[in-house]
Amino acid sequence: MSEVQVLTKVEELMGALDQVKRYKALTRLLVDFAVIFLAAIAVLLGWELGFDFYRLGSATGCYYAPFGEFTCTASSAALPLAVQLFSGLAILLIPMAGLLGGIVWVDRGLKKVEVEGWKGVLGEGIPGAIKLLQELNWDSVLDDIRASKSGYSVYFTVKVAGYWMLAFVVLFFPYDVGMSALHLAPNMYALALVSFVLVVLVARGDLQKKYRQVVSLDNLMWELRWFSGEFKAAKFEA
Amino acid sequence: MSSRQPSSKPDLYVVARIVKELSDNGSMKRTQLATATRLSYDVLVRYLGWMNEKGFVRMDGEENVVLTEEGHDVYERLVEWILEYVGKLRFPRF
Questions:
Q1: d(Cα A138, Cα A194) in Å, to the nearest integer?
Q2: Is the predicted pLDDT of residue A141 greater than 80, yes or no?
Q3: Phi-psi bin for A59: left (phi > 0), alpha (psi -120 to 50), beta?
Q4: Chain B closest CA to A64's CA: distance in Å?
Q5: pTM surpassing 0.90?
Q6: Do A134 and B88 touch (CB under 8 A)?
Q7: What are residue A70's DSSP bridge partners?
Q8: Is B91 within 8 Å of A19 when comparing Cβ atoms?
Q9: What are phi and psi of B60, to 5 degrees?
Q10: What domains, with CATH codes, occur in chain B?
Q11: Are the beta carbons of B57 and B67 closer than 8 angstroms?
Q12: Strand, coil or helix: A71
């Protein structure tokens, strides 16, 4: 019976460390995500600039509007329909593509993280459990947990920011139409605040869960710090 | 039984594998034991020499390797130790 308990406990330990590995990978992948998204924004800016330069080059109807804005009213009719259509939607399509590309990249990266490689060794029973415990590099494990904690916090922040942006975009159109109908000027700050409050309210449960997970990682670190001390100090030689 | 010892500190994992096989199967021939533990015969003999010196195993009249009471106790103590310490860990549900 005690052998089964040992194996169950070691399985739990290794499972928790696998999760730490995933969170650590997430830290690295979030940097990639940010780069992909920023690259999409750069492409959008490039596209808009290129399009404006094209219209400027066509030398029709560009002028300085009030408040110093440079505006081109030239017709783009000379361009193929597909390009005109894309140009109209570029502001939505390109960042969405960046966002989607980033999500796919993170997802693929997380799937590549090698986990559960220890299951075969643990299948050997107690000797396998001993081997796994002996081979754990405790300093590296504790470093990984520390990295995971910060990675998880960044993930948490990025997720909230993403939902916030999404809520802002989704609410923008009805808000704009509503304010126009009432002949009032839209207040973007108010919309941003309302979006944020909505995100916090809707995702409250998820946010609490994520917070508890960060706290759990912290607890796991303290537990393992204690266990690694005991394990290193143990004298197994008879 | 050879009195040669493992060249360096014995690996606890290897010792545990030998003890587990003997515990599960009772007495075993050295060749059988080498196959079951996936150890080369030479390495196994070195480990058996060390374990014999410590009193964990002995040879019976038919040259079979037998786990002694002490060997069994040490293994049990090891399991208990792991259970005592790993058992205290509380793992988060991620």
A1: 46
A2: yes
A3: left
A4: 57
A5: no
A6: no
A7: A64
A8: no
A9: -90, -175
A10: 12-85 (1.10.10.10)
A11: yes
A12: strand
